[in-house]
Amino acid sequence: MAPMANATSTDQVRKFAAEQFADEPNWLRARRNRLVEVYLAAPLPVRQRTPLKSRKLDQIPIATVPGASDLPNDVQNLYQVANLITVNGQTMHIHVPPAWRDQGVILLSMKQAVNVAPQLLEEYLGTVVNDDVDKFQALNGALWQNGIFLYVPARVTLDHPITVAHFGSSNVSNVLPRSLLVLDQEARATIIEQYLSEPGPERSLWAIATEIVLKDGAQLQYGAMQQLAATAESFVRRGAQVGRDAHIYWNLGEFGSSLSIAEHTSLLEAPGGQSDSTTVFFGSGTQHQDYVSVAKHVAPHTTSRMVARGVMKDDSRSVFTGVTEIKKGAVGTDGRQKEKILMLSDTARADAIPSLLIEESDVFAAHAASAGPVDAAAIFYLMSRGLSEAEAIRMVVHGFLATAIDAIPVDVLRQNVWNAVERKIAE
């Protein structure tokens, strides 16, 4: 397949990168330029159950500077609660509590970090997520516009969640957020990233990346809510490098965009590392969702838990693949996963695919997966007790998702997920 150049030629991409990032340090410009070439040369990713060629993604312009915009009225409240807001890749708002600054916490936009924290940025950027892995990750690595940079010093605990909102207006063709989160030894933090957009007359491409580095004993509650408009096509890749006795908690809600391809990986590379992953997704209309969750056990005595619950309605399609990988030498590892998907219509389709890749014998690994239609008898019973069909379906959906959602430990994120579920039920 020809490189993605229908809407943006290869020369335009090279020129755009050279001009847009001309003021950045030499090491970063060299990195971007190398990844521009990777992006231009790479074919579309191959997804076994998600064909991409027919989506004509090459028709979406990518070498463009998004126009200035602001948050629409219905989400203006984010200015009161968010620590960082980006609109079309531009920083619109940033707030760092003075007490955090006094403790040595560095919270910046990624654009600021280029100049304010260049040594930390150079040390960690690209060390967790492999930007060479496919075309759209290379695009993010080459042309990322903004995002959050966080460094929490050793033994510092942030006393409330960090909230980040990435917003795309109706006139934007591409948004490429990049976030880098580093927690030093025994640090504690909670962060929630939200992805929101307005529907536009044309499609928009979102290529999103988040890298997390947890030093020994650190703990991070990471939450993300993807609620992009139906005109968005999104590619998301997240990774966490988990040190000795460190703990990553993934709490992910996937509800928006026409196409959503997302993968998150926990690299458990030191003894005692732990990963807990909860993913909740809900498809409607003609949405196509393809999710992968990976727990890679490299060191001995590491633990992973993976839970996914999804609901599909209308003509939507989903694939959820859970991968527990246990490398040779990772003795005493405990890896478990459970995926369940509920289909509310005869035309919805879903696959739950667990995978265990085990190279060591002295381990425990287990999986359970199911995808099936809503129980007609349960709906009939609830209707016989006086509920309407819509009320009965709502009750069944709530019961199905409650196990996963109610286990999300961050109050505001848990409520946001329930609110998103209610909106999807009502669509």
UniProtKB/TrEMBL annotation:
Domain SUF system FeS cluster assembly SufBD N-terminal intervals: 74-164
GO BP terms, alphabetized: iron-sulfur cluster assembly
Record-annotated SUF system FeS cluster assembly SufBD core domain positions: 172-400
SUPFAM superfamilies assigned: Stabilizer of iron transporter SufD
Pfam families xref list: SUFBD_core, SufBD_N
Domain of life: Bacteria
Protein family according to the UniProt entry: Belongs to the iron-sulfur cluster assembly SufBD family.
Entry protein name: Fe-S cluster assembly protein SufD
Organism: Sulfobacillus benefaciens
Chain's gene name: sufD
